[in-house]
Amino acid sequence: MSSQGRRHFLGNALGALGLPLVAEPALALASKLNPADPQAAALGYVEIASKVDTKRFASYKPGQNCANCALIRLQYGFYRPCQLFPKNLVSAKGWCSAWAKVP
User: pLDDT higher for 33 or 23?
Assistant: First the structure.
């Protein structure tokens, strides 16, 4: 590997490693989504998927949760950002009626 190629590789590697460090402060400012929030309540959001009201949300299937939803933006942490609730974090063990299978 040439000297220039090595620098390019190291620059990209360090940039990739630094990205989560830059994103973390933004996540620290986000608050946990309150299930009583009007939008969350309308979507049936619960922090523990097994507590879904299956009479109201018959689309729920065991095994579905925020951690395996296509709308989650990060794949680590107990509370994670969701595309539906940009100012809040949702529980990885939670669920709402907008749950979408990861393609």
Answer: 33
